[in-house]
Every structure is written in structure tokens, then in C-alpha cells.
């Protein structure tokens, strides 16, 4: 191709400095004397973007020319985290850029910290999608992430008097240098209205959808660089706009405000991310969001197919679509509609293409989390899709009747329509019926799916089910977030581990090398000192970097049991108060995480942590042996500072409730030991690192089920375990709430009289296990040995391994390396 402008591609230090000053002046429009840190960040971001475009354009050109088979990862959430540092690492220019900035007298970390992270996800599910895009690009697999460009991402969290308060996330306020808008590829999306039948010119019976609204989907593209390859894939997020910014018909009648109202209504669709642990069954806007991005994405795929001269009948050969949970499951009837109504295929061919294209990942066993939409709402918004779903359902139920005659109960359970009371469309059933493959996200989770929520579907389609254990990208979660540890590892085994994480196991023998252990420990200490400094500066609390950093960071939820962690803290506190000369292993308890705004119990759990912290942190009797910190506004940026500084990773969900967890993997990779139940991926992590290097406690998933069936009586545990009674009574007395004995009553009553997540049953085992942890930590050398073994045995939890399995087992897609020409 053409000779590119060297000023926009060169990566030597002098060129970077020149490009930086050039951008500052001509792109940011600022002389150095007036520039802010944010201006510097933008100038840097644009020079990095310039250097990505060669690969991005080359990749697009190459895929198009060769009609490469492409993975389309459909997800309502992509929790990308800040792009700058990651792009520098994947491009291999982190060091020269850092040096160039320092030579200009700028603090590189301050520049990185300017970026407003795109928080377009709630937690694990959205962050998984982001790790998967990184691995897809690093494995050179042609792929597009399709989603929604929310104007407001996950809310920002403040603490006021120890309570969570939410603020809107205005991440686009100062502009987003990483995206390119492509208005020329905008698509129209229909909503509402009715359907009618007609006969076409070949006398065929056809259906037409006559909508009452239309909105425009405008694609915003972000390049996704692979690590040390030429591949740069695309994250394509859709923004909703009005088709006419102005409704002239309405305007001409003199109703200016009515015209503007329509514009506002259209743009609402991509306005804000819903917090996913809230029940959204009644939220029309949420269904509009799902349909909007799915329809835009499928129409985009048809455009690409046509552009490459391929036939509609080849759709499933060109594209493999992954449904990230049921949020995009409306893709099934929408793909059917496009094939039937817009492209004129007959039902059986359309259905075959649809099933060959779609695959579905389930991310939760909680029955209340399975999406369903009231049939009335669904029919009003998507009348044609409801018809298609009824037709899919009729044919599907015939199949069920054939395989399981005279089983009305099974038929009712499997129907795409829940008719047990008010009628609902069941999105998980729709996804199962319409997909060729269904997977869970950890071995245990995939087994439980077959036994519980998807049991009927497993009995009908056993061959569709498989497991794909989650993984996380070592580029962000080790190289970027823990540069010192990464440098230590590379100094011993070279840097291939970053792409082939299994090779970390070459470090194993060094766990017995005292010199290596000392270096490892020194790095952990210095990273802990850094976090301690930040905690002191931002929250005014002194924590001892030598203490055991005991960390639980994740969304706040009863099944994750942050309050079990608190019961342990209160138990230690109470023991120290009764015996002030007692020596325990000094601990710093760190919590962080957001509660869904409507989830009152989760908000009360935050208040409990902060209330206990307020007492514990001030009490001189404790001689600084305990500190309890709640770090506000948990997000990707903050988490990158927390994992590397952790000694102990709390993964204490009730067995059978956490589908996988991915934070558990990030902690272990960074040399934290896990205290955990046999839940989600903990099971596989323990197998990988060795049972002797993992602190296991608690009921197993079958024991949880059995105890529930036996008639679990939490109150009897309260009566039988004096330390438990003591901890609960202390909270109930108002000791942590200025004498207010009512504040935590809802939480304590739920534990004593219902306890659906069986904290009281697991309490004693947890306390005992924590005692073992404390003793283990006091032998620093043996602790470090265990930490090293944890980290270097985590090879199979790289998202590269997960993605390689999706590619070969589900998507049947091969790497397509991109060769660049200058
Ligand atoms: C949704 C809801 C909605 C109703 C109330 C309770 C509730 C609880 C959780 C959810 C989220 C379900 C989807 C999800 O985010 N799952 C997470 O996916 C991660 C990536 O696979 C996995 O590591 C986590 O274990 C899983 O919770």
C-alpha cells in the first residue's frame, strides 16, 4: 500500500515526543503553557491511536479480501477498563512511550490516570467479554464485539455516612479518543406497530411488519489490538439516534416541543446501562435496548455478507454468533425475521441457518435471574417477533411431545411461554432451542445447569451442552497491573508466558529458591505499601503494609456473603476486646464493590462493613491489629491496584451459587492465596494450584441442597455456636450503630430465620479456616512459597485457553494472521 506518514507511525522516542507536542498543539488546540494533565493524556492517546490504525485498517482489508469466517460476540456489556496502558502493552511500545513522557517532564502514571474508563458493564459478565476480545485478537481470530454505546455506564459510587450513594457516570464528558464513528453504516431499527399479510409478486404468502416508530443505530468502532500481533479487531457499539433530528410534520403544525420530544425518546435507548442484579421484567426500555443492539448488529452482518459477495444462505458459514447470556437472545427471532421477511427464505432453511449460527452462554444458576418478558409488553414492542416465537414454540413443543409423550408438566416447563400465571416469554428457553451449543462458565456450573435450571433441555438435547471455564487476560491482569511481578517472572523465563500462560510453570522450581522468594516477597510488600499510601491519602486511615491484606472485592450480593466476612471480623474484634493482650495475625480487611441501586439488603451490607470499620479502626484496645476499609467505586481501574496488593482472596459464596467468578483468577495470578468454598471456578483453581495451597471450607453444593431439603434451621446454629451468637448479639445491640439496635435488624433477622445462603451453617468452618490462614501467614517463607505456586500454576485460567476452546469446539473458526505491508 501507500507510504504512510512516518510522523504518525514511528515509535522511536524522539518521534513520539514530536508527535505528542504536535497533537497537543493541533488536536487539543493548546500551547504547553495552558495544557492540563488531561490535555496531555489526549495528546498521548491520539498518538497511540495513530499507531494502531495501520494494523486496524490492514486487518479490515485482509478479512474483507479473504472473506474470513468471523466470530460475533453479542453482549449487552463490555467492561473494557482504560485503553491507553493496554494498547501500549499490546503494541509493544509501553517502555519507549513512558520514557518519552518522562523526558518531557511528565509523570506517566498521572497521564494514565486521566482516562475515564468505559464502565459499560456491571461486573463479571461484562469484564469477561472484554477479556475475550483481548484473547480473540491475540489469537488472531477474526471477530467483532457488538454491543451498546451507553452514554452513562455503571453508576459511580460514593459513600455518605457509610451508605452507598450513586452518581451518573459521565464517561464521555471530555471526549473519547479511542472510538471512530461510522455514520455511513448506520441502520434503521423498527419498533412497535402491527403485522399484516400480503402475497408477493410470485404469489407467495408473506408477512410485513408495520412499525409505529423507527430509530437509527449509529456504529462507534474501537480497535482491539492483539498482543504482539498485527491483528486489530473491532468493538462496534451502537448509539441510538432519531432518524429525523426534527419531525417536520409536527414542526409545521407549530409543535416544536413535540418534535424535539421524539428525538429525545429515540436517544433514550442507548442512554444508560441497567444494573443487572435488579429485576427488570417490567422495564420496556431494557427490552428496547436488547432488540436495538441485536437488530443493528444482525443488519450489519448482512451488509458485510453482501459486501463480500456472499449469499444470504451462507450466513452461518461467514458468522458464528455467541450470545453472552440471554440479553441478546432476541437475535433468534430477529435473524429468523430477516431471513424470512426481508430475504424471502422459507422457514426450514431460515431455521437451519439460525441454529447453525447461534450459541448461548449461561452465566447464572439463580432462577430469579433468568430473564422473562411479559407477553403483552413483548407483543406491543415486537409484534412480528412474538409471532415467530409462537411458531418456533409450536414446532418445538411437537418435538418435545414426540420424545416425551403425555408429559404435560414437562411441556409446560419447556414452553417458550410461561403460562403458569401472567404470561411471559422465557429468554433462556428461547436461547436453548435456537442455539447449536449451550455452555456454562465453570465445570461445576456446567454440571449444575444440566441438573437444575436447564435440566429439561439437557434431557432433550444432551449433545448441545458443554463447559467452557472462564479465563482472564494476563496482559491486563498481570503485565499491566503488576509490572514488577511480571518483570521478575520474565527475568527468569523470558516473556513467552504472556502469550502462553502455561509456561509459567517453568517458575515452579524457583518456589524452593530462597533468593527468588525474597524477591517475590519484596515486590508484594512494595505493592502493598503503594496501596497503603493511597488508602491513607484518600481515606485518612493508616494501615500496616506488613499486615495480612484480606480482600473481598466484587459486586455486593447476599449469595457472595460479604456479611460472612463481617461476622469473622466481629468475632476477632470481640475476642480482642475480651482479651486485649491476645496476639493475632494483624489483618487489614479490604472490601470494595457496588450494590444494585434497588437492592436494599446489599446496601445495608455496605453500611454494616463501614459501621464495623468505624469502630474497629479507632479502638486503641486493638493495638492496630485490625483495620477494615471499604474502598468506594470499585471499577477496573481501582481493581488493578487491589489484586496485586492482596495476600488473601475471599471467594466465599454459598456453594452452587457463583457460576464461575473471575476475580478469583486475577487474585491467584498475582500471588494471593484463596480462602474459598467449592463453588464456581474455585474448584478448578484448587485442583490446579494444589489442595495444600488453598484454604477450603464450607458445605459443598450437594450438601447445601441436602441441608435445605432436611429443613435448615439457622437459629439452631446461633444457639449452638457461642462465638456466632456473640457476634450477632454485638451487632444487634447497636454497638456498631451508635446504640441503634434496629439498623441491622433486617439483615440479622434474615440470617436467623431464613438464611437462604447458609452463612450460619458455614460460620464455624469459616472461622476455623481463617485461624489456619492466620497461622500460615506468620510463616512468611512458607506463605510466599504457596503464593508463588498459586501464581505459576494458573496457566489454564488465561482467557487465551478459554477462547481457543470456544474456537475449536463451538465456533469452528481458525486464526487468520494478518500480514501488514507498508
Ligand atoms: C443477575 C441477577 C438478576 C436478578 C437478581 C439476582 C441476580 C444476580 C446476578 C445476576 C447476574 C447474572 C449474570 C452474571 O453477571 N453472571 C456472572 O458471570 C460471570 C462471568 O461468567 C461469572 O464469573 C459470575 O460468577 C456470574 O455471577
Automatic annotation (TrEMBL):
The lineage of its organism: Bacteria, Bacillati, Cyanobacteriota, Cyanophyceae, Oscillatoriophycideae. Belongs to the glycogen phosphorylase family. This is Alpha-1,4 glucan phosphorylase. SUPFAM superfamilies: UDP-Glycosyltransferase/glycogen phosphorylase. Pfam families: Phosphorylase (PF00343). GO terms for molecular function: glycogen phosphorylase activity; pyridoxal phosphate binding. Its EC number is 2.4.1.1. Keywords: Carbohydrate metabolism, Glycogen metabolism, Glycosyltransferase, Pyridoxal phosphate, Transferase. The modification N6-(pyridoxal phosphate)lysine is found at residue 666. PANTHER family: GLYCOGEN PHOSPHORYLASE (PTHR11468), GLYCOGEN PHOSPHORYLASE, LIVER FORM (PTHR11468:SF3). It comes from the Bacteria. Its cofactor is pyridoxal 5'-phosphate.
